[in-house]
Amino acid sequence: MGCEAHGTRFDVQRFGALHKLTSSGLTALYTAEDQRLGRAMSFKLLDDDRGKDPKALARLEHEARLLARIDHPEVVPLLDIGEVGDEPCLLMGAVGRRSLRAWLEFGPEDAQRLDVLLQVGRGLAAAHRAGVAHCNLGPERVRVDDRGQARLIDFEFGRLLDAEPGAWERDQPNYAGDPRYMAPEARKAGRRDAAADQYSFCVLAWEALTGRRPPHDPLAAARSSGPRRRAVLTALARGLAIDPSARWPDVDALVSALERANSAPRDHLRGPWLTALTIVVVAVMASGLALAFG
Question: Which residues, given as ranges, of the chain have pLDDT below 50?
Fold first, then answer.
C-alpha cells in the first residue's frame, strides 16, 4: 500500500499505522507518524467505497484546491493529493487527536477556551482573505492538540467567495451542513459566504464559553452576564445578528474585538487596585510632607 502524489510513491510503512480520528460519511480523517522525518501527518480518504464515486472524488479534489489557497498555522496545510493503494487521498500536516467538542469535555479554563477560539477565528479569517468560505463550521471541524494548538479542517463543502452569479441557489441542493451552526440565510436561501461563516463561528464560540446554545436575544444575555464574560459575549452577539449586514464587517474585525474584550476584564480588575494604591501613596506622601514642614 502506498500514497502516490505527483508520480512519487510513498510507502505507507514509512508512516506506520493509520489511526482513524473522525468520519463525516463522505470522508475519513487519519493521523500517522512520518517515521523517516519524525513528524506527525494526517490523511483524508473517501469513506467506504466512495473512491469509485466520481462525485465524491470531485469533492475531495475540490477541497484540495481550496486548501492549496490557504497558508495559515490555524488551518490544516495541504501537502499533496494522491492515492493510498487504489483510494484517493489528501496528504496533510498534523492535526490534534481531539475535536473541539471532545477537548471542551476536559473542562479547560475560560482563558484556554478563548485562546483556542481566537485561533479558530484567525484561521477562518485567513481562509476568507484567501477567498475561501468554510461553509460547514462546527466543533467537529476543529482539531485541538495536547498543547492547545487548534486547526480548522474539513473544507469539503467550502466554496470560493468570488463565485459567479447564481451559485448560491445552484449549490444549495448538494449542501449538507449542520443546521445547528448554519446562519439563517444559509438555512433558508442557501447563501453561504463570509458573513454566514462568521455566524457559525459565533454559535460555536458561544457554546464553547457558556456550555449552552445562543439564546433568542444574545445581546440581552451578554449584557446580563458576569463582568469577565460580558465584553466577549457582547462581541459574539453582534456576529449572531439575524441580518448579515448587522454583523461585524469581517472575521478579522470580530477577532480584534474579542482580543480587546479579553483584555478588558483584567483592566477592570486592575482599576480598583490602582485606585487604592494611589490613595495610599498620596496619603504617605502627605504624611511625609506634614512631618517635614510641621
Answer: 1-2, 4-8, 173, 265-286, 288-293
Which part of the chain is CATH 3.30.200.20? 14-92
Pure H helices in the chain: 54-68, 100-104, 110-129, 167-171, 184-189, 194-210, 218-223, 227-239, 251-293
| Residue among 154, 167, 93 at smallest CA distance from 127 | 154
Position 289: which residue type? L
CATH topology of domain 98-268: Transferase(Phosphotransferase); domain 1 (1.10.510)
- Contact at 8 Å (CB) between 237 and 222? yes
CATH for 14-92 is: 3.30.200.20
Q: Chain centroid to CA 229: how far?
A: 20
**Residue 142: burial class (beta carbons within 10 Å; 0-12, 13-18, 19+):** buried
168 near 192, Cβ under 8 Å? yes
At residue 220, the pLDDT reads 97
Instruction: Kindly report, as residue ranges, where domains of CATH 1.10.510.10 are found in the chain.
Output: 98-268
CB atoms within 10 A of CB 168: 18
Q: What is the pLDDT of residue 172?
A: 53
